[in-house]
From TrEMBL:
GO biological processes: 2-oxoglutarate metabolic process
Keywords linked to the UniProt accession: Disulfide bond, FAD, Flavoprotein, NAD, Nucleotide-binding, Oxidoreductase, Redox-active center
GO terms assigned for molecular function: dihydrolipoyl dehydrogenase (NADH) activity; flavin adenine dinucleotide binding
Name of this protein: Dihydrolipoyl dehydrogenase
GO cellular component assignments: oxoglutarate dehydrogenase complex
Enzyme class: oxidoreductase
Coiled-coil residue spans: none
Disulphide bonds in the chain: C41-C46
InterPro entries noted in UniProt: Class-I_Pyr_Nuc-Dis_Oxidored, FAD/NAD-bd_sf, FAD/NAD-binding_dom, FAD/NAD-linked_Rdtase_dimer_sf, Lipoamide_DH, Pyr_nuc-diS_OxRdtase, Pyr_nucl-diS_OxRdtase_dimer
Catalytic activity: N(6)-[(R)-dihydrolipoyl]-L-lysyl-[protein] + NAD(+) = N(6)-[(R)-lipoyl]-L-lysyl-[protein] + NADH + H(+)
Length: 466
């Protein structure tokens, strides 16, 4: 078979590239090595983690917060198997939805491992041992990423686990050790903390979420500690050993002392690595960087003119929505359009409770770049909406250029800020000033009023409700 476009990998990057290319008139094939479509995000990432976060959030509310609302539920309990089963159903419905979209857009789906024969031919090695070669004028590599580990840690997938296993445990750990205080570790740590596990986070950097704005990391750390999570920053893990059902983690703290942590499960969440195993990139002559990422130019084109790469397998944030945007960009570029992504405006979100969300530059980045900026901050506690719901933690911080008032970064911790951040992204896309945002009438009472107030604080230093 000959196609205008072959997409290898059906994650958010790959399946969106396939849909957009088909919408623009291309004959498209997509190859996926697993039996379900949707990639990491749908099967073992964004969707299942949010399903468990939501379930555990309901339980936590029932045991911690119902009472203050005057609701009494006698001894709330949960059925973990049912919770995981629900998560599986959410995943199944979502992967089924992607299959439906492939059919609707006349995209041929091939199940099997895709590997290059040369720059225009891809072999599909199927599970039944047979193989097939298809030809593509253009090819998109969208093979994503896999969890990475430290060289001295062996992941046994039983007690020393990655996020993939953490999403399908048979029991709630008694004491979960989490190596790495980044997004994935904190989200999955929150799930099990809410369900009653002791959770100890061990982070090498001086703060959790070290790449986020410092105020955000500080607030999140404070809130998670209040929820009972133990956070050990400045601890470099040196060994992870199994002793029966126990996992023993040794780390060196800031003073150079050895600290030992003992739990029954250890989640290793130290990042992800780009995944190109089995692709035979050498047969097509596609270059990868030293860290294993496929090298691309500004058009996401590899060194081989008809081969493109998108998503987690290339440079940039490993996020589903970044992968999706890149999928759209490649499809439109191939159709002769002039698409564009503003990488500065890709929001970063953590689905703990309260949620965390950010777009644009951090204070540190602005300082490092020598930008003259001003900051306006507004506490969630001062909002009527927050008092009504009881979600008092967090703040919104708006960073704006001191001379032009243009918004340069917005950082949030609070209820529903995962959704709220898009107001900031839209404003920044249109290069709004802090005053522009402060002058927009916001519904009352909403969490979004914190954005207006923080913008006003950045613009003229005079929030109205603080
Ligand atoms: P992937 O989704 O990794 O898909 C790649 C696909 O290619 C896979 O299905 C793989 O099987 C297939 N493949 C690989 N090699 C071959 C081959 N040779 N032949 C055929 N098929 C192949 N991001 C967010 O934006 N929001 C979140 O809330 C979020 N939560 C996450 C939670 C967890 C626990 C994890 C692990 C990740 C999370 N992410 C989240 C990150 C997100 O999942 C990734 O950024 C996203 O899936 C990347 O998309 P992709 O299309 O590049 O690759």
């Amino acid at each position: 078979m000959k196609y205008d476009l072959i997409v290898i990998g059906s994650g958010p990057g790959g399946y969106i590239a396939a849909i957009r290319a088909s919408q623009l008139g291309s004959k498209v094939a997509i190859i996926e090595k697993y039996s379900t479509l949707g990639g990491t995000c749908t099967n073992v990432g964004c969707i299942p983690s949010k399903a468990l976060l939501d379930s555990s959030h309901h339980f936590y509310d029932a045991i911690k917060h119902f009472d203050e609302h005057g609701i009494s539920v006698k001894n709330p309990t949960f059925d973990f198997g049912k919770m995981v089963g629900r998560k599986d159903k959410v995943v199944e419905t979502t992967t089924g939805g992607i299959k439906y979209l492939m059919d609707k857009n006349n995209i041929d789906v091939y199940e099997g491992l895709g590997s290059f024969e040369d720059a225009t031919h891809v072999k599909i090695s199927k599970n039944d041992g047979t193989s097939e070669i298809i030809e593509g004028t253009n090819i998109v590599i969208a093979t994503g990423s896999k969890p990475s580990t430290l060289p001295f840690i062996s992941i046994d997938k039983e007690r020393v686990i990655t996020s993939t296993e953490a999403l399908k445990l048979k029991e709630v750990p008694k004491h979960l050790l989490v190596i790495g205080g980044g997004v994935i570790g904190l989200e999955l740590g929150s799930v099990y903390k809410r369900l009653g596990a002791d959770v100890t986070v061990i982070e090498y950097a001086p703060t959790i979420t070290p790449t986020m704005d410092k105020d955000v990391s500080k607030e999140l750390s404070k809130v998670l500690k209040k929820q009972g999570m133990k956070i050990n920053a400045n601890h470099g893990v040196t060994s992870v050993e199994r002793n029966g059902d126990e996992v023993i983690v040794k780390a060196t703290n800031k003073k150079g002392e050895e600290v030992t942590f003992t739990g029954d499960y250890c989640l290793v969440s130290v990042g992800r690595r780009p995944y190109t195993d089995g692709l035979a990139l050498d047969k097509a002559g596609v270059k990868v960087t030293e860290s294993g990422m496929v090298e691309v130019n500004d058009h996401l084109q590899t060194n081989v003119a008809n081969i493109y790469a998108i998503g987690d397998v290339v440079r940039g944030a490993m996020l589903a929505h970044k992968a999706e945007e890149e999928g759209v960009v490649v499809a439109e570029y191939l159709a002769g359009q002039k698409p564009h992504i503003d990488y500065n405006l890709i929001p970063g979100i953590i689905y703990t409770w309260p949620e965390v969300a950010a777009v644009g530059k951090t204070e540190q980045e602005l300082k490092d770049a020598g930008v003259d900026f001003k900051a306006g901050k507004f506490s969630m506690r001062a909002l009527g909406r927050s008092r009504a719901s009881g979600d008092l933690d967090g703040f919104v911080k708006v960073l704006a250029d001191k001379n032009t008032d243009e918004i340069l970064g917005v950082h949030m911790v609070g209820a529903r800020v995962a959704d709220l951040i898009m107001e900031a992204a839209v404003a920044m896309e249109y290069r709004a000033s802090a005053e522009d945002l402060a002058r927009i009438c916001h519904g009352h009472p909403t969490y979004s009023e914190a954005v207006k107030e923080a913008a006003k604080a950045a613009w003229d230093g005079k929030p109205l409700n603080a």
